Amino acid sequence: MVRIVLADDHPIVREGLRAVLETQEDLEVVAECSRGDEVLRTAMDLRPDIILLDLEMPVMDGVETIRRLRQAPHNFKILVFTAFDNDERIIAAIQAGADGYLLKGSPRDEIFKAIHLAMEGGSLLQPVVASKLLRHIGQQTKPVARGDDSIPPIEELTERELEVLHLLAQGMPNKEIASQLVISERTAKFHVSSIMSKLGATNRTEAVAIAAQRGLINLRNNQPS
């Protein structure tokens, strides 16, 4: 059973989402919160598997809530569930450590998929997130030599790391990557960590976006470039 805490300041949103989630036998909503500080207290008390939270909440917003949760000893899985598809706080939420991002209005099957992927260690990279991350990374990238508009070099990925990156871009968790490449899950985890380190990414989602911006993959079809 996947134990979930819902965090949104609109009761009707929480009620609707609870009704959708509890149509699945393996999903259980154990608490609802309307404020970020309430999320922190509830998470510490109940130790849920998944926290599904909005970015807009009183007292403490979603981004700060994610940062605080990431400082806790328990490894919570955190999914952002928001209506703000043009809000730069989405970028901040991913950089703060969100395991996935969903727009309100997403089909229920996509919500279920995001939850199960997060539980398995994967991440759902929706197109709106990819485009915003790519734009953000592009804006942050500056020329490093006089008259040179190229992207600063990174440590070259190995052939195996490129294979892992391709599967990572499909949202696969380490277990599925290991199965696909016929390697151990521990080895898959090592490759993912190495990829993130070489790309300078703080999480899997950001690694995929940076890789796309660097031309290593094409997010339209998740194929090696």
Q: What's the arrangement of secondary structure elements?
A:
Layout: E1 2-7, H1 11-21, E2 27-33, H2 36-46, E3 50-53, H3 62-70, E4 77-82, H4 89-96, E5 100-103, H5 108-119, H6 127-140, H7 159-168, H8 174-181, H9 185-199, H10 204-213, E6 217-218, E7 223-224
Helix pairs in contact: 2-3, 3-4, 6-10, 7-9, 8-9, 9-10
- Strands of the largest sheet, in order across it? 2-1-3-4-5
Residues in helix, %: 40-55%
Given as residue ranges, the uncertain stretches (5+ residues, pLDDT < 50) are 141-150
The major β-sheet equals: 5 strands, parallel
Approximate shape? globular
In terms of DSSP E residues, the strand content is 5-15%
GO molecular function, one term: DNA binding
Domain HTH luxR-type: 150-215
Modified residues (4-aspartylphosphate): 54
Organism: Thermosporothrix hazakensis
Could you characterize the architecture of this molecule?
The chain is α/β, with parallel strands linked by helices and 225 residues long. The protein has ten helices and seven strands. It has helices spanning 11-21, 36-46, 62-70, 89-96, 108-119, 127-140, 159-168, 174-181, 185-199, 204-213; strands at 2-7, 27-33, 50-53, 77-82, 100-103, 217-218, 223-224. Helix 7 (159-168) packs across helix 9 (185-199). Mean pLDDT is 83; it is low at 141-150.
